[in-house]
Amino acid sequence: MPARTRPRRAPSPRTAREVARLVDIMSRLRAPGGCPWDRKQTHRSLIPYLIEETYELKDALLSGRRQSMLEELGDLLLQVVFHAQLASERERFDFADVARTIADKLVSRHPHVFGKSRDQLSAGQVLARWERLKLAEGGRSKSLLSGVPRALPALLRAYRIQEKVAQFGFDWPDVEGVERKLREETDEFHRALRKRDRRAQTDELGDLLFTLVNLSRHLGVDPETALNAANDKFTARFQRLERWLKRRQIDLAGSTLAVLEEAWQQSKEPKRARTHSRRRRKV
Predict the structure, then answer these.
(1) CA distance 275 to 273
(2) Taking the domains of the chain in order of start, what are their residue ranges?
(3) What's the CA gap between 77 and 23, in Å, rounded?
(4) Same fold, 14-109 and 147-221
(5) Which of 24, 17, 75 is nearest to 50 (CA)?
């Protein structure tokens, strides 16, 4: 492990004071006479709240709203403090151990900052070195992909798997190679459809989705963000479809496919109208 250096700036007394206060509050909530709900929780029971808070923080970060980011970061920090408190009650570890462990990891994974040799690396080179150091820490028995949780959403898991193996050169050299692979997987999926083989269809559809994620990575597009945008676009158009039907007193449940298709086409008109309006202004 590279020699450690002193941090350039020590945490402010205010930071240390507020962290200590938070840890103390959590300890009091769990103590006899504390909060009945908090005292009832376990590591397992808190998992849904951890996941929920993570997604709420994601929304806050995407919104860019300062107050939302502040509050959601605090909510996520609470989950860390809560789990550390539960562990400390069984004399396993405490919040200080959690902080020390991640601090030690950051130092050991950044030899270009904390080591004797200050290598000038790009962001991509830093990521590749991080993965090599992580793999070395686990010894020969550790797989490169063992750190990708199976519980991740499928799109994100595929992205992380591809990102990790690409750090070691297992990747298409350019986007054209991925496009050829996409056409190949599409043809295989079509053959499975024609055979009406359900298992083959499932396998080939999975391969097709995996390749689409690979394409998005090569294009620098987050697949989760792209799919969410498509979800939002479809939702907005379908809600316009519902309003179109409602104005004409047509029941959605009783509508024929032909009526729904007409309503769907009409739901796209606002976009076409705006485009036409812009063109007229330019003229």
Answers:
(1) 5
(2) 14-109, 147-221, 230-282
(3) 11
(4) yes
(5) 75
Look at residue 140 in the predicted model and tell me its pLDDT: 59
Q: Most distant CA pair in the chain: distance in Å? A: 76
At residue 188, does pLDDT exceed 50?
yes
Mean pLDDT of 275-283: 48
Cα three-residue angle 160-76-123, rounded to 5 degrees? 40
Which tokens is 212 given?
Answer: 């689409």
Distance separating alpha carbons of residues 153 and 227, to the nearest angstrom: 13
d(CA 23, CA 96): 10
* CA–centroid distance for 188 within its chain: 30
How many whole angstroms separate alpha carbon 96 and alpha carbon 16?
12
By percentage, how much of the chain surpasses pLDDT 90?
62
Instruction: For the full predicted model, state whether its pTM sits above 0.70.
Output: no
Give the whole-angstrom CA distance, residue 113 versus residue 171: 28
Indicate the residue type of 190.
Answer: H
Quickly tell me which residue has 């403090």 as its tokens: 81
Domain 14-109 has CATH 1.20.120.790: no
Cα separation values, 94 from 100, 154, 268, Å: 10, 33, 56
Write out the two tokens for 51: 């996941």
Assign a CATH topology to domain 147-221: Helix Hairpins (1.10.287)
